[in-house]
Amino acid sequence: QVQLVESGGGLVQAGDSLRLSCAASGRTDSSYTMGWFRQAPGKEREFVAAMSWSGGSTYYANSVKGRFTISRGNAKNTVYLQMNSLKPEDTAVYHCAAKRPQVGEYEYWGQGTQVTVSS
Fold this sequence. Notes:
single chain; 7-stranded mixed sheet; 4-stranded antiparallel sheet
């Protein structure tokens, strides 16, 4: 089992930056893929970014490419999402997720952290 806890959300203005954190505990290892997803009110959950737990590969949604960066902390059990140049359309609940490489769907999810960007 893997437990994920997000933090770092808040209310910011357009153009500001935020850094979300995801603390992982349990059976994580370097083979896991870590991802960030978001869900805005009335919309489906969408992919934001992902990386291999080892940090060798990163992936981004087109809507955040160049503005968001996913990375792993030195503590090795924390994944970050640095969000720059935030836009009102980035407003959503952001969830951290994890999966084993042989599994297609993400298996473990955090409870989410709210990000609100005012114009």
